[in-house]
Design goal:
UDP-n-acetylglucosamine1-carboxyvinyl-transferase, Chain, 4-stranded mixed β-sheet
Length: 401
């Protein structure tokens, strides 16, 4: 499917943020391990979260889907899977990483595999078997904090309490706050020292509950970016102003560029009426909105330098070089150096963008299309990975495609 968003200016739009992908993944896993039956309200029903749900079903966890809720019967930490279980996680790195340690709680070894791109990242294939003994462990989280989250989420069921030491600042550290928030909501007990040390009790296990998924700041970023790039105002409902989601910091970047950000009880509004200026900004805790910031920077006045993003080359695409290449194809000046990317805006021309099967690439360049016009995005359906209905939601709000 190809889409060509029409150019817009002076917008006045209202959206509702979809449920958080990160919270849905983690709530599914905690529910599967918990004692009792959990109801998850407003889960994100997207390709990635379905991969996690399908994998849990292959491990003989019962998940019943009803209208805007999923009912999960937990196994109390004892997963009775079949011999020869293989989990195909396609292109969902989150699913594969989070489920890897969980496999140690299974009665039979588990093989985890993924797409060709996943095998480049590099992760699979791998076979996991044995038991989760526990004790102290040191983890390098410089490539992804999900390796840490994987161990933390399974830790309540270890034979001994687990202590996790992280020798250097982890990539995307804010996602650990999401992990811990879900774990504690289901009854786990964790003590910590910043992002350097986590200790997880193995006597406080998960208990089933009713759990509602909050709105996703990563997905909402594209809507906020429309206000910044096109000028005007956009309000996004279904967002917790004090959420621990790291991608909430994207709003700080927009404020620094000249936008006005206003927080309501359960919504956020971004408005731009004046010039949009370039900035220097560290996005190490907001990785999933880096491409969105690149889209805004491409139509700003003056250069923007984004730092702390070296680990993005291991995502669905190489989000540093691939984003730079596509921006240059539209006329932008882009420099890549180490873990930073500098965008020098220039008059943009029309073009066709192949998002390299990267959902965030497709949605980010849609923002540029709305600001500059004449941009067609191929394989637009790849947005279903995290945001099914993205294009329809734009149309319903008044964006012409």
């Amino acid at each position: 499917m190809k889409v060509t968003p029409q150019r817009m200016s002076g917008v006045d739009l209202i959206f509702t943020a979809p449920p958080s992908k990160s919270c849905t993944h983690r709530a599914l896993i905690a529910s599967a391990l918990a004692k009792g039956t959990t109801t998850i309200f407003r889960p994100l029903d997207a390709d990635d979260t379905r991969l996690t749900a399908t994998a849990l079903r292959k491990l003989n966890v019962s998940i019943v889907e009803e209208n805007r809720r999923w009912i999960i019967t937990g196994c109390d930490g004892r997963i009775r899977n079949n011999a020869g279980t293989r989990l195909d996680l396609d292109n969902s790195g989150t699913s594969l990483r989070l489920l890897t340690t969980l496999a140690l709680l299974c009665s039979h070894p588990v093989v985890l595999n993924g797409s060709a791109r996943m095998q480049e990242r590099p992760i699979p294939p791998l076979k996991v078997g044995g038991t989760l003994k526990g004790g102290p462990v040191t983890i390098d989280g410089s490539m992804s904090s999900q390796f840490i989250s994987s161990i933390l989420m399974a830790a309540p069921y270890a034979q001994e309490a687990i202590g996790v030491r992280i020798p250097a600042p982890p990539a995307s550290a804010s996602y650990l706050d999401i992990t811990l928030g879900v774990m504690e909501a289901f009854g786990a007990k964790i003590t910590r020292t910043g992002y350097e040390w986590f200790a997880v009790s193995n006597t406080h296990r998960y208990t089933a509950r009713r759990y509602t998924i909050e709105g996703d700041y990563s997905s909402a970023s594209y809507f906020f970016a429309i206000a910044a790039a096109c000028g005007g105002r956009v309000r996004v409902n279904n967002l917790i102003p004090g959420s621990v989601q790291g991608d909430r910091r994207f709003l700080d970047a927009l404020a620094a560029m000249g936008c006005r950000v206003t927080y309501g009880k359960d919504n956020v509004t971004v408005e731009r009426t004046g010039p949009l200026t370039g900035i220097a900004f560290d996005m190490s805790t907001s990785p999933d909105t880096v491409q969105t910031l690149c889209a805004v920077a491409a139509v700003a006045q003056g250069r923007t330098t984004i730092t702390g993003i070296g680990h993005l080359k291991f995502k669905e695409s190489d989000r540093i070089s691939d984003t730079a290449e596509r921006l240059r194809a539209l006329g932008c000046g882009v420099e890549v150096a180490g873990d930073s990317l500098t965008i020098r805006p220039a008059p943009l021309h029309s073009g066709t963008i192949d998002p390299a099967n990267d959902h965030r690439m497709a949605m980010s360049f849609a923002v540029i299309g709305m600001a500059a016009g004449g941009i067609t995005i191929e394989n637009a359906e790849c947005t279903a990975k995290s945001f099914p209905g993205f294009w329809e939601m734009l149309q319903q709000a008044g964006v012409k495609i």
